[in-house]
Amino acid sequence: MQENGNIYGRLSNPTTAALEQKIAALDNAVGSCCVSSGHAAQLIALYPLLSPGKKIVASSKLYGGSITQFTKSFKSFGWETDLVDITNYDEIKQAIKAKNVRALFAESLSNPEGVVSDIEKLSELAHNEGIPLLIDNTMATQAICQPANYGADIIIYSTTKFLSGHGNAMGGCVVDAGKFDWNNGREFEKLTEPDTSYHGIKFFETFGNLAYINFCHASALRDLGTTMSPFNAYLTLTGIETLNLRMQKHMSNADEVANFLIKHDKVDSVSWSGFQKNKSYQLAKKYFKFGFGSVFTISVKAGFDGAKKIVENCNLFSHLANVGDTKSLIIHPASTTHRQLNPKEREISGAGDNVIRLSIGLEHSDDIIKDLKVSLDNL
After folding, report:
1. In total, how many domains does the chain have?
2. Residues of the chain with pLDDT under 70
3. What does the DSSP 8-state code read for residue 372?
4. CB within 8 A of 296, min separation 6: which ones?
5. What pLDDT was estimated at residue 340?
6. Interatomic CA distance for residues 119 and 122, integer angstroms
7. Radius of gyration (Cα) for the chain, nearest Å?
8. Nearest one of 220, 215, 152, 211 to 183, comparing CA atoms
9. Is 62 in contact with 349 (CB distance < 8 Å)?
10. Is the domain of 65 the same as that of 153?
11. What is the reported pTM?
12. Of 159, 261, 288, 377, which is least packed with CB atoms within 10 Å of its CB?
């Protein structure tokens, strides 16, 4: 570590580095670290911050797999998680006062419900307690939201989703805005104390605002091994070339589909943040550049079994757990992505029994709407 350059394939790779530089540039950040999946990105992002007995405070409006990772699997590391209502600022403020808390975590646009986080407010709360704000920006992408511009310190992506766009390359990315002072506030020993595996260097003292992202490469990837395949990095680089155009089409289609669904007599509600009556509408107008995202949920009157039947009745939509593909995707979270949660947890996370998640693709909007209409009408 006396000079820049590739040390070993598990830590860095020229093709992967090209992707890391592009993603960091899209986020106006100092650097990024690409890894093998979105879940790996969460692990690598938190590893520099946590140790046994330490805790994160996270939104309860998260992807079901993230809730399981945070509240179950991370316990094996001695890490704890408190889930809070990300719109209840008094609850957040109280939760992050605990001296063992080391991070505040939320999704810019939640999966599956589409709740928009007030990033500036969350940043203010976190920084007042000397902890960083981590924002998962997977559902929005940099095409419509750049969380670092509003105070987020670390941004996380599952690159498997919109960034690649085709669903053929798994990956994740941790992005460092480079603005958090790791030497002030709460203690972050891995970044400020001597690292015996690197001859006693102190990462923050040695690398300054590159301390966090260098630690992710030099230590987290070295020991946890969640390396991105260079070929997947190449596929993701290819996908990013069309990100801006794709997102515009995704969201124009979502607008038409959401407005069709809200009028259908078998649909109770639509969570798309583009509706002015939606609680997230004003926040979306503030943080999102030219749209409201294309992943949202609908609540149907037919209940658990009826929701599953609607998914099964679709032909154009693919029944897949991914989001962000060029093709439209549909899933019933309560029986799939959020099945490991109990009923109360599912309701809190926005994945109740009668909820269906849609990821609107790039097909002609008339075809997407016709497929949903036939499925709903045949229920």
Report:
1. 2
2. none
3. H
4. 112, 113, 114, 254, 258, 270, 271, 272, 273, 357, 358
5. 80
6. 5
7. 20
8. 211
9. yes
10. yes
11. 0.96
12. 377
